[in-house]
Design goal:
The chain has helices at about 20-30, 35-40, 45-50, 60-75, 100-105, 115-120, 120-130, 140-145; strands at about 30-35, 80. With about 150 residues, the chain is mostly helical. A two-stranded antiparallel sheet has the order 1-2. Helix 5 crosses helix 7 (about 120-130). The chain starts with 20 loop residues before the first helix and ends with a helix.
Length: about 150
């Protein structure tokens, strides 16, 4: 996976003050919960390392997980919170629009067709799923739909 930020993240990617989507994807992939206050305890170099490191193969995922566990422990004195890893995450399913995405789109009067969903990259589907969750502020959902040429 290449290092790529979305346009809707442009206001914070230079400083990495927020956790970018590509790191959030890696967190889900390796099963570690990283809270924003923990992220803020990392140095700029450590944040950049978490952006740059691959997290796709089994070996990469394990190494990423171990690095995160060490950084969280060293910087916060807390143990990393481990999460269950979904073996079939919704963002990998190009056939079916995730319910949370369709519900959020419907709220704002948008319909996402199966063809549009299929044409999105896994990273784009992941972003829309994250941005559509009820516990997320959702401010970037509409900009993401524009960026991904859904509307």
């Amino acid at each position: 996976m290449e290092t790529r930020f979305f346009q809707f993240e442009a206001d914070f990617v230079n400083s990495l003050r927020c956790i970018p989507m590509q790191v959030r994807l890696k967190l889900d992939t390796c099963g570690i919960k990283l809270k924003l206050p923990q992220w803020h305890r990392f140095s700029a170099e450590e944040r950049q390392t978490l952006v740059d490191l691959p997290c796709e193969t089994e070996t990469e995922v394990r190494a990423y997980q171990q690095l995160l566990q060490r950084l969280i422990s060293e910087r916060t004195g807390e143990a990393a919170t481990e999460l269950a890893i979904d073996p079939h995450p919704a963002w990998r399913n190009a056939e079916t629009v995730a319910d949370s995405v369709q519900d959020k789109a419907t709220e704002i009067g948008v319909t996402i067709t199966p063809a549009q969903w299929t044409n999105l990259s896994p990273e784009q589907r992941f972003a829309l799923i994250k941005l559509s969750r009820s516990n997320h502020e959702n401010a970037n959902f509409l900009p993401a739909l524009h960026e991904f040429q859904i509307i």
